[in-house]
Amino acid sequence: MTTPKLEEIQQVTQIFKMLSDPTRLKILLSLQEGERNVTSIAEQVHMEQSAVSHQLKLLKDNRIVKSERQGKTILYSLDDKHVVDILQKTFEHIHHR
């Protein structure tokens, strides 16, 4: 692996900041099961919809989740398989002894 550029290091740091928040991590784990609307996510993670919406915006701004409008509903999902890979590898790491 070549030495990353400073900009790349900053981007990686920002992604780990997003993943390091327990609330955002619960939202991402919820989305591993498939796309969901804000109401469904809020119910699953036991939070107010406004709080979930705020966290989803941060995750979307950092390209960790994406959204798609279907009529009046906005459905959220993980941005790509890389997000799933990061989560899976991290959990594998904590279970490895």
UniProtKB/TrEMBL annotation:
**Record GO terms (molecular function):** DNA binding; DNA-binding transcription factor activity
Name under which the protein is recorded: ArsR family transcriptional regulator
Q: What residue stretches are annotated with the HTH arsR-type domain?
A: 4-97
Q: Which Pfam families match?
A: HTH_5 (PF01022)
Alphabetically sorted, this entry's keywords are:
DNA-binding, Transcription, Transcription regulation
The chain's coiled-coil residues are none
In terms of SUPFAM superfamilies, this protein maps to: Winged helix' DNA-binding domain
For this protein, the record's PANTHER family field holds:
ARSENICAL RESISTANCE OPERON REPRESSOR ARSR-RELATED, HTH-TYPE TRANSCRIPTIONAL REPRESSOR CZRA
Q: What is the residue range of the signal peptide feature? A: none
Gene3D superfamilies, alphabetically?
Winged helix-like DNA-binding domain superfamily/Winged helix DNA-binding domain
Q: Which domain of life is it from?
A: Bacteria
